[in-house]
Amino acid sequence: MEHDGTTTGTGPDLRLREGAVSWREIDDEVVVLDLERSEYLSVNASGAVLWSLLAAGTTRDALVDALVDRFDLDRGRGEADVDAFLASARERDLLEG
């Protein structure tokens, strides 16, 4: 399934920035084209779970819950992984806000 990375709506939810990326889910991974930098990024299985939620719009807590549930992580590890993922996405200016 191919996605253009666009989202709509406003609010405190975390979302991918409209027009920032084009992405495709392949098996348990996500391949992303950063449209502004013309760079390809690869997201592993845990990142793919987060990416799909970010594409739809989500919250930090929902991201943590998804990782904890899917990969049987303790909450502290899930929070640290989500925070690192979000920091990387923000550094690349891929999130709204």
UniProtKB/TrEMBL annotation:
- InterPro entries to which the protein is assigned, alphabetical: PQQD (IPR008792), PqqD_sf (IPR041881)
User: One short Pfam family name for this protein?
Assistant: PqqD
The name under which this protein is listed is: PqqD family protein
